[in-house]
Amino acid sequence: MYRVAVVGALGAVGTEMIKTLEDRNFPISTLIPMDIPEMAGKKVRYRGGEVEVRAAGKGAFKDVDIALFSAGADASLVLAPIAASEGAIVVDNSSAWRMDPGVPLVVPEVNPDAVDAHKGIIANPNCSTIQMLVACKPLHDAYKIKRIVVSTYQAVSGGGGPAMRELAAQAGQYARGEEIKVSVFPRQILFNAIPHIDVFVDNGYTKEEMKMVHETHKIMDPAVEVSPTAVRVGVFRGHSESINIETEKPIDLAEAKRLLEKAPGVKLMDDPSRLLYPTALDCDGQDAVFVGRLRTDPTVPNGLNMWVVSDNLRKGAALNAVQIGELLVKKGLKPRKL
Question: Which residues does the UniProt record annotate as the domain Semialdehyde dehydrogenase NAD-binding (predicted)?
Answer without folding.
Answer: 3-118
